[in-house]
Amino acid sequence: MTRHHAIVGWMLGSFLVTFLVTRAITRAIRRGRGPFRNASLAGVHVHHQVYGIFLLLGVGTAEFTYRPEAPWVDVLAVLFGAGAALTLDEFALWLHLDDVYWTRQGRSSVDAVLVAFVIGALLLVGADPFDTQPEDGALGLALTVAVNLTFALVTILKGRTVLGVIGVFVPLLAMVAAFRLARPASPWARRRYDERRLARARVRFPPGHRSRWDRLVDLFAAAPPVSDLPRSS
Predict the structure, then answer these.
(1) Which contacts of 103-110 are long-range, i.e. CB under 8 A and separated by 24 or more positions?
(2) Which of 55, 58, 101, 160 is found 20 to 30 A from 87 (Cα to Cα)?
(3) Are residues 212 and 116 in the same domain?
(4) Which residues, at least 6 apart from 73, have a Cβ–Cβ distance to it below 8 Å?
(5) Which of 89, 110, 126 is the endpoint of a domain?
(6) Is the separation of the CB atoms in 148 and 129 below 8 Å?
(7) Is residue 177 part of a domain?
(8) Cis peptide bond N-terminal to 71, omega within 30
(9) Domain with 63 in it
(10) Which of 214, 216, 209, 160 has its CA nearest to residue 188?
(11) pLDDT at 223 > cutoff 90
């Protein structure tokens, strides 16, 4: 295993552990169980993304200032993974500027975390959106990136955001998804589909349609019963 893969491994492992521990603690707080309580400062609830932001700022400053070697670079990777997990776990709060952690809108936080984890795993196994042969040169690199990003963008416009983002690292996935039917409410379908194709899209994606990804998100995003003394997460 190269140093690059070791660093990504430390970062990814820390990211996953921090996310799972954070979700376990927020569930305990919501249920009113255990010693955990919300942190507050002068009566203002301090969300855990605040700790994550400070961790990311500190790690970035240390990395750019000191350029440490092993083992300190591994320590920074662990701290970066933890900071990223704490921050992305409240992605929905950045998006909506509201405490929607246990609401339907809060599911976007889990989407963000899972997508980040998949991207980290792809980097760990060597996936690289800029992977070209040395003899291809700058032009080959530019064309490869442009084609990959085009397929990924089309996939996202078709309402398949997760596949589009992952497809940046796995071009074949984005290419296949780009040629498949768009979701009926997607920008691509609204602008480019006639009534016949819209009807096909509605059959393929009926109201309430749930994918395997939705069921995976359910494992982390489903709100547990609230205690008699509600505590926001």
Answers:
(1) 103/223, 106/221, 107/217, 107/221, 109/221, 110/217, 110/220, 110/221
(2) 160
(3) no
(4) 7, 63
(5) 126
(6) yes
(7) yes
(8) yes
(9) 1-126
(10) 160
(11) no
Structure tokens at 216: 């995976």
List pLDDT tens digits, range 93-108. 999 999 999 999 999 9
49 and 13 inside one domain: yes
Q: What are phi and psi of 149, to 5 degrees?
A: -65, -35
Q: What is the mean pLDDT of the chain?
A: 89
213 and 143 in a common domain: yes
DSSP-H helix ranges across the chain: 3-31, 48-66, 72-88, 91-96, 107-124, 137-157, 161-167, 171-178, 187-192, 195-204, 212-221
What radius of gyration, in Å, describes the C-alpha atoms of the chain?
21
Structural tokens at position 180: 């498949």
Q: What is the domain count for the chain?
A: 2
Range from 6-10, 201-205, 229-233 carrying the lowest mean pLDDT: 229-233
pTM (predicted TM-score): 0.85
Environment class of 230 (CB within 10 Å of its CB; exposed 0-12, middle 13-18, buried 19+): exposed
Same domain, 178 and 106: no
Find how far residue 137's CA is from the centre of its chain: 32
